Amino acid sequence: FKEETNIKMEKIKSKKEIKGRLPSIELGEIYGMPFSDDVNAICDKVVGTKLENDIRDVLGIKFVGPFKALELDTKLKQEKTHLHLWYRYKFDPPECMTIATRDENKEHWCYHRDDPKHEPGMVVFSNRADKGAFTTKSVSLLGALIKECGRGKREKEIAKQLQIIASEYSISLASKNKARDSKVNAKIFSGLGIVVDHDKKNDVGYRELSVTDHKLHQMLAKVAKGKDEGSDVDYSELDLLIQYANIANDEYDFGQALQLGLDMYAFSMHFAKDAHYLLLPTYSLLQRDEFGDILEAFLPLRNRPLADIEQFVSEKKIDEKEVEKEEDEEEEDGSLQRKKNKKK
């Protein structure tokens, strides 16, 4: 491994390498998660150059998140969890990290990783209208950017430059991560799927939900509609599913709780607390504690405008008492509704 690392270090003459630091290494320390050579290529050859301006002006794409984190002051870099909230949109699960935007209020691109100990496995994007649904663009940001280039003269020139960079850094431009696709345990409403270790011989690690995706969608839609209308809501079916997921966790089938939790997370803000309470211990059991930290830090900010979240990350001026009050009111409403259902 050490020999392979040395070969890679010799191959890539990074701006940061001159100072003894690859961007991927420095960002890995800042975020507490590893990054791939895709980041080195973008930081070295695109960020801060005419090419970055061309990508912004011609394609309408702006680099954010980790690609700007290296410019932050030391104090803010040390706030790992808060830095993960930078450009985090309402329905972004902890597995996603925003890296680029196109009209920041409408479309954003993310690195996706199934485990915080792993490098990103794909670049996905979501439109505001998608409400929690993501689509895979490529296994790398360079690949995703090249795909965005059309037949115009300036777009062709951008694509050509990006292809040269990808070749220099040996970056894959594949559309899909076939290795990951073969490991996906289940589809989820976000379109991202989940990956957990599954011992098929002993059938441990993942078990299917007791209802179909269609039935779960109907259940969640019914509860969400009732809450929107302010009418009495029957939580009994959903509570039973959550109970089954907790039992699955007790029996080492962590995948079921991850699937249900992320489905609720992506479906509606009405299930933010339910998803939180189910996902938090599940991430811990999966030894993906960093995701749990992000989940917990983002919960009180999920329903706030992006501008408020950005202000919190940079200045931490969000009124924490106001946030706590909103949380208490939401929790009280949910608890009262469940008590009413039990009495019935």
Question: How would you summarize what this structure contains?
Answer:
A hairpin with a 7-residue loop joins strand 4 and strand 5 (135-138). It is built from 17 helices and 5 strands.
Provide a descriptive summary of the structure in words.
- The protein has 344 residues and is an alpha+beta fold.
- It has 17 helices and 5 strands.
- Helix 8 runs antiparallel to helix 9 and helix 14 runs antiparallel to helix 15.
- The protein is globular.
- The termini are far apart.
- The relative contact order is 0.10.
Write the layout of secondary structure elements.
Blueprint lengths: L1 H10 L11 H9 L5 H9 L4 H10 L2 E2 L2 H4 L4 H4 L2 H4 L12 E7 L4 E6 L9 E6 L7 E4 L2 H8 L4 H16 L9 H4 L31 H17 L6 H15 L3 H14 L4 H14 L3 H10 L7 H10 L4 H24 L1
Antiparallel strand pairs: 1-2, 2-3, 3-4, 4-5
Helix pairs in contact: 4-9, 8-9, 12-13, 12-14, 13-14, 14-15
Order of helices and strands: HHHHEHHHEEEEHHHHHHHHHH
Rounded mean pLDDT is 86
Number of helices: 17
Strand content: 5-15%
Instruction: Estimate percent helicity.
Output: 40-55%
Classification by helices and strands? alpha+beta
Poorly predicted residue ranges: 1-19, 318-323
Main sheet overview: 5 strands, antiparallel
Strand order of the largest sheet: 1-2-3-4-5
The total strand number stands at 5
Radius of gyration: 21 Å
N-to-C CA distance: 63 Å
Shape: globular
